[in-house]
Amino acid sequence: SYVLTQPPSLSVAPGQTARIPCGGNNIATKSVHWYQQKAGQAPVLVVYDNSDRPPGIPERFSGSNSGGPATLTISRVEAGDEADYHCQVWDNSNGFQGVFGGGTKLTVL
Amino acid sequence: VQLVESGGGVVQPGRSLRLACAASGFSFTNYVMHWVRQAPGKGLAWVALISYDGRNTYYADSVKGRFTISRDNSENFFYLQMDSLRPDDTAVYYCARLRTPSGGPVLFWGQGTLVTVSS
Prior knowledge:
The complex is a heterodimer. By secondary structure, chain A is mainly beta. Chain A has strands at 9-12, 18-22, 33-37, 44-47, 61-64, 70-74, 83-91, 97-100, 104-108. The model of chain A has no long low-confidence stretch (mean pLDDT 96). By secondary structure, chain B is mostly beta strands. Chain B is globular, with a radius of gyration of 13 Å. The model of chain B has no long low-confidence stretch (mean pLDDT 96).
């Protein structure tokens, strides 16, 4: 089955840029979605189809998936961005399944 | 759009539990619906999906043969029947709807219901 790999944690100072990678076999051929999850809350979609943002998500959140790992980039990081971030794809190589990465805990120093 | 789960609780290993999700605020009969779970302190894990008409279902390998997803389009509910439960099924279970009827990311989530499998 398809596997997505994320680093367990990442620390960034306020005002800096956070880049969260999501690796997978030939991931550039897939549409990658990103979710933010704060403690005790349901996830919130922040980037979909590699680089699109849902309404209400700040422009500071962006995504890319064109060679190398897919990446969620958070510019000008704020204290309120501290959360777990999960990448996700749909895989139809063995039936049809949803696949999530293990999640990355972003700590704002 | 509102999704409200119910049916979680504490259950012994090997026993069964049925979760329900009440959907409202959209054309339920047009949408594929999903269950996603999250074990304590762990990441998200997709569990199952059911097509808009209930004819097609898909499951994660970890629950295949033990869990059954179903829906009632007349009542705007869908369900997750969980049999032969194991301690590693302990998780918050979310019902979820995608951004579009046919695919894309999960855009709407329920608040989650906790299932604890323990003797």
